[in-house]
Amino acid sequence: MTVDVEVNGRMRAVSVERTKGRDPATWRFRVTLDGRTRLVDVRRHGPFGLSLIFPDEAGASLDVAAAEAGPQGEWTVHLPAGTVRAIVDGRRRAPRAGDPDGTLDGEQRIVAPMPGRVVRVLVGIGDEVALRQGLVVVEAMKMENELGSPKAGRVKDVQVSPGTSVEAGRVLIVVE
């Protein structure tokens, strides 16, 4: 499978093929990015954590956490060097029923992608917001994550304030 991934505004094609791994608790993938193919063993740690092990590179590893951050293939990815927002196949997303022009209708709830603490609320009730405009900043795993609006619209409800502890899935803001 080949997917388009946009990271920090840069579009890249990533080819991912699942292969047979040695350990049943580990998934093995052959990943090609920028013409370079690598084997990657993946183990899950909790609901959001992943341990990536590169068996052909002297067992080099990388711990990451990834959580969906929006309805249009948006992900928040926590890396040792910082947090990035990734959009997977954002340009190729098929419109959903009732969504012919690629916009979302009705209320959209912005939820905490993982447990954390609200650092800043960037909007108030009644504010007009643009697609992907920052709404709230949540600190999780010692990194700050700005959650953006899944659509252009108006802020209907703000259910948190700075300092609020949140669990994964808690509604933070509602945009209509």
Helix-strand layout with pairing:
Layout: E1 2-7, E2 10-19, E3 27-33, E4 36-45, E5 49-54, E6 60-68, E7 74-79, E8 82-88, E9 108-111, E10 116-121, E11 128-129, E12 134-140, E13 143-148, E14 153-158, E15 165-166, E16 171-175
Antiparallel strand pairs: 1-2, 1-8, 2-3, 3-4, 4-5, 5-6, 6-7, 7-8, 9-16, 10-12, 10-15, 11-14, 12-13, 14-16
**The CATH class of the largest domain:** Mainly Beta
CATH topology of the largest domain, by name, is: Lipocalin
Unreliable stretches: 91-102
Strand order of the largest sheet: 1-2-3-4-5-6-7-8
| SS field, number of helical segments | 0
**What's the helical proportion of residues?**
under 10%
Beta-strand percentage range: over 45%
Order of helices and strands: EEEEEEEEEEEEEEEE
Structural class: mainly beta
Quantity of strands, as a count: 16
Largest sheet: 8 strands, antiparallel, barrel
Rg value: 18 Å
Tell me the span between the first and last alpha carbons.
Answer: 35 Å
Can you walk through the features of this model?
The chain has no helices and 16 strands. Helix content is 0%, strand content 56%. A hairpin with a 7-residue loop joins strand 2 (10-19) and strand 3 (27-33). The model is unreliable at 91-102 (pLDDT under 50). The protein has strands spanning 2-7, 10-19, 27-33, 36-45, 49-54, 60-68, 74-79, 82-88, 108-111, 116-121, 128-129, 134-140, 143-148, 153-158, 165-166, 171-175. 18% of the residues are buried. Strands 1-2-3-4-5-6-7-8 form an 8-stranded antiparallel β-barrel. It has a 4-stranded antiparallel sheet with strand order 9-16-14-11, with no helix packed on it. Strands 13-12-10-15 form a 4-stranded antiparallel sheet, with no helix packed on it. It has 2 domains: 1-92, Lipocalin; 106-176, RNA polymerase II/Efflux pump adaptor protein, barrel-sandwich hybrid domain (OB fold (Dihydrolipoamide Acetyltransferase, E2P)), CATH 2.40.50. With 176 residues, the protein is an all-beta fold. It is elongated.
